[in-house]
Structure formats: C-alpha cells, structure tokens
Specification:
Elements lengths: L7 H9 L2 H11 L3 H14 L3 H9 L3 H8 L4 H14 L3 H6 L2 H13 L4 H10 L11
C-alpha cells in the first residue's frame, strides 16, 4: 500500500475514496508490525502534500498517528514521527491538534532517544521560537 501511495494520482484516488478513514481503522485493528509500518509509511507519504496534511488532521487522523508513534517498533515510530513533523508544519494543522494527542506525542518524544533533531523539529513548530533548538 505504501508503495502505491508514493504516486500522486494514486494518493488523490485513495483520499477521495475514504482511504484515510480506513487507514485509521486498520491502525486501531491490527498489532502486526509489518502492517503498522506500512500504514505509518503511507500516512507519512501523504503528509508530504499540504492538502493531505489538512485532510489527515481534519478527518481525525491524529490519534492514529500518535498510536503509531507509541509503537515499540523503531521503523513504525520513525514513519509516525516523520508524519507528525509534516503535520505540524502548517498553522491550520497545529491549531487542530487536541491536547490529548499533543500530550501523547510529547510524552513519546521525551522517551525517544537518539533522534533529538527530528523530535526537536516537531516541537519547534509548536513554540514561538521555531529555531528547532527546543530543550527537553
């Protein structure tokens, strides 16, 4: 699925047919690491485009992204945090993050060692000083 969604035409078709909502359902329904990695990768790829960042946030995808970020599998986590970073770039999207999702993400980011620059980039979008030098 993630490979198919690297194509822009496939992305448009996927979103129009309700693929985002189905993806969130699959995140909640499966504990299979390979499937979760594919789902996280697909969301991260979709989040490369601003219109899909907004769609992910507007259709309730943040709980799925934070659930993926809490995975014990590093590959799933990296895709999820990449998606979260992209979702945090746009002001419209940042304003829509629920306090619960933001708290879950912040809790996870504090525990995620070894990728401070990537985690800092996400946090920087949420503070006035967007230099990326957020302290933990």
């Amino acid at each position: 699925m993630a490979s198919l969604l690297s194509d822009f035409d496939n992305q448009d078709f996927f979103v129009r047919l309700g693929g985002l909502e189905k993806t969130y359902g699959l995140v909640a329904a499966t504990s299979n690491v390979d499937i979760r990695a594919s789902l996280a990768s697909a969301l991260a790829d979709l989040a490369r485009r601003p219109e899909y960042c907004a769609a992910i946030v507007d259709t309730g995808g943040l709980p799925a992204v934070t659930a993926l970020a809490e995975s014990p599998d590093v590959k799933v986590c990296l895709h999820a945090v990449s998606c979260a970073r992209r979702l945090s770039r746009l002001k419209h999207c940042r304003e829509r993050w629920s306090a619960e999702c933001l708290e879950r993400l912040l809790t996870w980011l504090r525990a995620f060692q070894g990728h401070d620059a990537l985690c800092g980039a996400i946090l920087a979008h949420f503070v006035e000083n967007t230099s990326g030098d957020a302290e933990w």
